[in-house]
Design goal:
- By secondary structure, the chain is α+β, with helices and mostly antiparallel strands.
- The protein has a single domain, classed as IHF-like DNA-binding proteins (HU Protein, Chain A).
- It has three helices and five strands, in the order ααβββββα.
- Helix 1 packs across helix 2.
- The longest helix is centred in the N-terminal third of the chain and has 20 residues.
Length: 88
């Protein structure tokens, strides 16, 4: 399902315009981004949890040259499925 299809489904379910549905979807996604970028997490019980995953610095191997390289520590967004999604 694309974002457009999702917005259409939300508009139909709530009996609102596609414009208002798109604004609502964008607002939810935007707020999730703000919370996770701040290093916090947000939980939707039964659905899942959006959080930050931290990776430690480590050594790696360049597959082209076989040289050992240093990989810097990094952070990325993470989603953990809740009970309702795990039991599909």
């Amino acid at each position: 399902m694309t974002k457009t299809e999702f917005v259409d489904a939300v508009a139909k379910k709530l009996d609102i315009t596609k414009k208002h549905a798109a604004e609502a979807v964008d607002a939810v996604i935007g707020e999730i981004e703000v919370v996770v970028k701040a290093g916090d997490y947000i939980v939707f019980p039964g659905f899942g949890k959006f959080s930050v995953s931290e990776r430690a610095a480590r050594k790696g191997i360049n597959p082209a040259t076989k040289a050992v390289i240093d990989i810097a520590a990094s952070k990325s967004g993470k989603f953990s499925a809740g009970k309702n999604l795990k039991n599909i």
